[in-house]
Amino acid sequence: MIAFSGWVGARPAISGWLFAWCLSFELLVAIMRKPTLYQSIKAKRRTQSLVIGVTWYTAESWAQVRATAVDPACFEDSFEKWKAMAVAARRNFQRSGVLALEYQIVPEEFFAWCAQNGQENNSTARGEYVSERLSAVHNTEA
User: Fold this and answer.
1) What is the DSSP letter of 14?
2) Which phi and psi (to 5°) does residue 2 adopt?
3) Residue 136: pLDDT above 70?
4) What is the per-residue pLDDT for 142?
5) In a 10 Å sphere around its CB, with 0-12 CB exposed, 13-18 middle and 19+ buried, how is residue 106 labelled?
6) Is the pLDDT of residue 9 over 50?
7) Which H, E and C letters describe 46-103, residue by residue?
8) What is the rounded distance in angstroms from the CA atom of residue 41 to the CA atom of residue 128?
9) Euclidean distance between the first and final Cα of the chain, in Å?
10) pLDDT tens-digit profile of 39-87?
């Protein structure tokens, strides 16, 4: 019996070329296997630092964005609870070697971006907006 991850039981008596082909196939499968998230992050750290954008608000901007969001349940119950969660998340990212950059959302600019890009005010749009804005800032500095 042959299994992709190795031999199961005793190696069957097969000719040399078939054995070599099976071994090559197993190596090919191992090479083509998608790396885990941990392996990807570890590899990324070796080549460059990982940078993520963290959506940041003032108390006023948080209230404005939350009031118009199609997913208000994604927000914490209060600005203070959100800020405590965001500070802890940023700290955890930084402890793990990830550079977490804050991006302060200006509600009027975000709403204009949503209209221009045909997006609703939801968590996906907020993430895309922050990513796009930080990428623009980061690319002009480089």
Assistant:
1) -
2) -120, 135
3) yes
4) 52
5) middle
6) no
7) HHCCCEEEEEECCHHHHHHHHHHCCCHHHCCCCHHHHHHHHHHHHHHHHHCCCEEEEE
8) 21
9) 56
10) 666 665 554 567 888 999 999 999 999 999 999 999 999 999 999 999 9
Summarised one tens digit per residue, pLDDT across range 77-118 is: 999 999 999 999 998 888 888 888 899 999 999 999 999 999
Token digits of residue 15: 């000719």
Helix axes 59-68, 79-95, angle to 10 degrees: 100
80 is written with which tokens? 């203070």
Q: Which residues are registered as beta bridge partners of 102?
A: 54
Dist. CA 78–CA 126, nearest whole Å: 18
For residue 32, count other CB atoms closer than 10 A to its CB.
7
Backbone angles phi, psi at 66, to 5 degrees: -65, -40
Q: Look up residue 69 and give its two tokens.
A: 């969001």
